């Protein structure tokens, strides 16, 4: 949460950034998309956002490329269906790279020509995780007639924040970046996608009002601008509530588990009380009995940590997991060990507690 707040403050340090909130009715949107009658008007709205010297704008519109699974090869790290492999892509411009401080490890970034000229093969940048499949110069051929060529590879753990949509950081390691090129927008739906996912940085709110009014006059678009800083307050509140709920549920689970484990151990002690007495009579100590109890629990903790680390190693910290496991072992075994220490050898052999 602190990371998100810090990033939002950094992005809005020089100019406040605004995102679009769409209020256009479904009937009006269907009217816009049923044919390409309004492409000219949508093109003007596009220019008022992305070709306006009074503002700085970048798009966060993303979708997915579909590849045939049978010919794609290894796809274990990607989203798949029975027949297809899905790789998300994102339209970007030079301001996107500037605002989110993105760097490349190989190849080149997009050039002015990539953003302005139509090409039979569109240049793309790929996330670092996709290098298992693609290298510099490789051609991508998703379903459809358009082809793409890898011209650069992003630095590992590159990311951006989308406060209006996902409300969190988006990792780019398994994504493809495309240059936002107006010449590649062929339909009303294409224009609508990049318009409605625009982020605009400006110190003059009147410019935003002009864009809203122009859109309403041209195609009866109904949208408004919401400040990223303003939106972040609600995101923070939602995340705080979500965290509180998670803590509450985790506490309930922990209490239930504690009671269950404690009762099970006490029943285990009662069932094997005579056996414990014989051990003590044979020279064992209460410490040895405690180790016998704890050994069973430690085996479960070791197995659970190994499984968690092998399956979710990229999302978990083994060191912290082990420390938490040891604390849980101490908490869960406290009552059974205390009960065992209070029992004398005689009471154990008689099968009762003095």
TrEMBL record:
Pfam families listed in its UniProt record: MacB_PCD
Superkingdom of origin: Bacteria
Swiss-Prot/TrEMBL keywords: Membrane, Transmembrane, Transmembrane helix
Transmembrane domains' residue ranges: 247-268, 289-312, 318-340
Domain MacB-like periplasmic core positions: 53-207
Signal peptide: none
Protein's name in the database: MacB-like periplasmic core domain-containing protein
Organism annotation: Saccharibacillus kuerlensis
